[in-house]
Amino acid sequence: MEERIDELELRYMHQEKTIGELNEIVCQQWLAIELLKREIALLKEQSLLMNPSVTRDPDQEEPPPHY
Known about the structure:
mainly alpha
């Protein structure tokens, strides 16, 4: 009986360690995703400023200065 308890405790410790490691990975991935989302938003904004007609609908496009 004691051997089974020891085995269960050992399994529990390994699972706790694995859960901690997985949690750390998930946190790192979340931070990376947030950074990528900010970078994409910045790139989208820069793209709109550089070439508005590629990313905007014609209805949203400003008329050329000669109109």
